[in-house]
Amino acid sequence: MDWIFLATAGLLWLAACGLAKGCALLQQQAQGGRS
Description:
By secondary structure, the protein is an all-alpha fold.
């Protein structure tokens, strides 16, 4: 049952990293577009 927890934690970590990178890219594009 441990592998299920590890797999879930891994997916959540990847999702969090993806959202963080996506938000950062959106902010950079927004700032670049405005200025």
